[in-house]
Design brief:
The complex is a heterodimer of chains A (156) and B (131). Chain A has 156 residues and is an alpha+beta fold. Helices cover 38% and strands 24% of the residues of chain A. The chains are: A alpha+beta (156), B alpha/beta (131).
């Protein structure tokens, strides 16, 4: 499988995970422009390693305010009651479920292993040129997903 | 009859979600135990009786596959229903876990009603219509 095929699975998986467990809708491109983030908020980033027939690293990047909204939906609690730690835990779980969802489609007949999602510094994650990046706008805020595959790469 | 349930997952957030689904499922719960991984789960199972184990697969320390093997070879625990709740929905993994003795397999993401239905099925209460 080429990296571009792998990345092509991300939008469908992202919608499925957000819809089922975060009660959050992914916006289309027009809504995305209208909902464009003002920025300035603290950023939260999580990554994990996946290993199977295809191996590499997978991560998500989002603003803390978005992580709080997603956590409130995920946990069924008021947004104001969500701590930064809880928001981070839920963001890590989002990375885990999203990567697992993509890998399940990729692997099919093969088993795979995911590492525990870890909070990461932003600088080593993005901008190295070796990753595929997808940005999604949701009604809880923007979420950026990146994938760095070992071996074959293509640009989106 | 109140049922004791054990949730095994290294994600505290996911344990909270599963706990919440159990709470609203209408299941008569005695004690809802939680464990961070298979090792913690086994230690707890040696002290407490549970009627249902719900476990993730990918966990540090001892994963869900090893936990399932340990439960199935233990004469006291062998008949306790085990529901796998995992992000891995590959055919290979589902087939493997069911062959090793899992009683059900639920992939994440899941709908609350689906998890609730599995809990009722495995505890002998049929399907849940409340969600």
């Amino acid at each position: 499988m080429k990296a571009c095929e792998f990345a092509g699975l991300v939008p469908e998986c992202f919608s499925e995970v957000l819809d089922a467990m975060y009660f959050t809708t992914v916006l289309d491109s027009q809504e995305m422009e209208a909902a464009d983030s003002q920025g300035g908020d603290t950023l939260v980033a999580f990554s994990l390693r996946f290993a199977g027939e295809v191996s590499g690293n997978f991560g998500i990047l989002l603003e803390l305010s978005t992580a709080r909204k997603l956590a409130a939906n995920f946990l069924g609690e008021e947004e104001r009651s969500i701590s930064s730690m809880e928001a981070g835990e839920v963001a890590g779980e989002l990375a885990n479920m999203l990567c697992g969802s993509v890998m399940s489609r990729v692997e099919g007949e093969h088993k795979f292993v995911l590492s525990h999602p870890e909070a990461v510094a932003l600088s080593p994650v993005l901008g190295t040129g070796d990753e595929l990046v997808c940005r999604f706008a949701t009604d809880s805020g923007d979420v950026t997903v990146w994938i760095a595959l070992e071996g074959d790469l293509c640009r989106l | 009859m109140a049922f004791n349930i054990l949730i095994v997952d290294d994600s505290p957030a996911m344990r909270r979600v599963v706990r919440r689904v159990v709470d609203i499922s209408g299941t008569d719960v005695g004690t809802l135990f939680e464990a961070d991984n298979g090792l913690e789960a086994l230690a707890l199972l040696r002290e407490e009786w549970v009627d249902l184990i719900m476990t993730d697969i990918n966990m540090p320390g001892m994963d869900g596959e090893q936990l399932l093997l340990e439960v199935r070879k233990d004469p006291v625990l062998a008949t306790v229903p085990v529901l796998i709740v995992s992000t891995d929905r590959s055919d290979a993994r589902v087939k493997q876990m069911m062959t090793l003795g899992a009683d059900g397999y639920l992939s994440k993401p899941f709908l609350p009603a689906t998890l609730s239905g599995e809990i009722h099925r495995l505890l002998g209460g049929g399907t849940d219509e409340s969600l």
